């Protein structure tokens, strides 16, 4: 056993520095060549990679005077950014209001409330399915978020546009993957929501080694960044794949290739990861593993592929992910 982390004095000191785990069974069970490295972001205090972005956005806003002492923070969230912001805002003395679609899992809503957030829940658009948040649903949440910001004269964290979202991963997640792997990464991939993680990690790894390939993952049937027609706007990959083409944090120059993953591929991968590797993670992690399997079975056979286990599977126990 390695020496445990030193005594911490703030929960904020425990954001980041997550383990990197090699997934031997995920490679062997499929008879593939290569290595898979999973960055276990479920070890963050609120259980997801978004804690890093929450901390960086708030720190930067305070440093720039955009957020003043005691001012309310508001964010449109699928739950993970909100849980991270709830922790960060409480620690730094800011009230926090999360605006979320009813389509997200109930665990996320309860977690944010438990962590001290006020949560505004927005009904889904007509015909929408619980557990599947569409672009139309998100537009309704956006309208409500704008109104809540005005009402509280609040600072909006605005994860879809703030560069600090990328910077969090460029300064921490990417370099951690590089160091923990001993510089042995050939490929990075990520299912994108805001694109903050993808852009930040891709930038950091390419600075270390320009030859590293980076693949952007989207839900099959809603792969708008790949330029494909939308045939399936609804999917189960919560927190990602919103079908938005106007993503401020997306940079096509950072994309080696585009991959698509179906709901059932993501579910199968998440279940395998839990049962065989002991990692209880969510839908987007399953999507990342499914995409990594595609690459090892195809153009990246033999490569070392790193990806994020984005959040904890405990956030999905009310869904059909782990029946
Ligand atoms: C579980 C999960 N997976 C993936 C993503 C997408 O990450 P990003 O917004 O950095 O693209 C999010 C974003 O909130 C998320 O919560």
TrEMBL record:
Q: Which InterPro entries match?
A: Cys_Synth/Cystath_Beta-Synth, TrpB-like_PALP, TrpB-like_PALP_sf
- Pfam families listed in its UniProt record: PALP (PF00291)
Domain of life the protein comes from: Bacteria
Tell me the CDD domains matching this sequence.
CBS_like (cd01561)
Ranges of residues in domain Tryptophan synthase beta chain-like PALP: 12-311
Q: Which GO terms describe its biological process?
A: alpha-amino acid metabolic process
**Do the record's keywords include Iron-sulfur?**
no
**What protein does this entry describe?**
Cysteine synthase
Q: Which organism is it from?
A: Singulisphaera acidiphila (strain ATCC BAA-1392 / DSM 18658 / VKM B-2454 / MOB10)
Lineage runs: Bacteria, Pseudomonadati, Planctomycetota, Planctomycetia, Isosphaerales
């Amino acid at each position: 056993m390695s020496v445990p982390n030193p005594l911490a004095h703030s929960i904020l000191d425990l954001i980041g520095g997550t383990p990197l785990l090699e997934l031997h069974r995920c490679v062997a069970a499929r008879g593939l060549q290569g290595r898979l490295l999973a960055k276990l972001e479920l070890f963050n205090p609120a259980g997801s990679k978004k804690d890093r972005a929450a901390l960086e956005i708030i720190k930067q806003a305070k440093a720039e005077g955009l957020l003043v002492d005691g001012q309310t923070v508001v964010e449109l969230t699928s739950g993970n950014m909100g849980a991270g912001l709830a922790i960060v805002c409480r620690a730094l003395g800011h009230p926090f209001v999360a605006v979320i679609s009813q389509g997200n899992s109930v665990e996320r809503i309860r977690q944010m409330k438990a962590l001290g957030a006020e949560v505004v829940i927005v009904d889904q658009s007509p015909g929408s399915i619980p557990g599947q948040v569409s672009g139309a649903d998100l537009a309704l949440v956006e309208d409500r978020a704008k109104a809540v910001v005005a009402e509280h004269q609040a600072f909006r964290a605005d994860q879809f546009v703030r560069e600090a979202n990328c910077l969090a991963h460029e300064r921490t997640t990417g370099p951690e993957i590089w160091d923990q792997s001993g510089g042995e990464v050939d490929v990075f991939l990520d299912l994108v929501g805001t694109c903050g993680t993808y852009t930040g990690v891709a930038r950091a790894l390419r600075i270390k080694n320009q030859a590293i390939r980076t693949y952007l993952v989207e839900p099959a049937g809603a792969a708008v960044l790949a330029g494909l027609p939308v045939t399936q706007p609804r999917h189960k990959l919560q927190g990602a794949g919103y079908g938005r083409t106007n993503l401020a944090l997306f940079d096509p120059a950072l994309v080696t290739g585009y991959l698509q993953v179906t709901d059932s591929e993501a579910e199968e991968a998440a279940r395998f990861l839990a049962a065989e590797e002991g990692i209880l993670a969510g839908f987007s992690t399953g999507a990342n593993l499914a995409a990594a399997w595609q690459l090892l079975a195809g153009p990246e056979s033999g490569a070392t592929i790193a990806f994020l286990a984005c959040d904890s599977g405990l956030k999905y126990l009310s869904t059909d992910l782990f029946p």
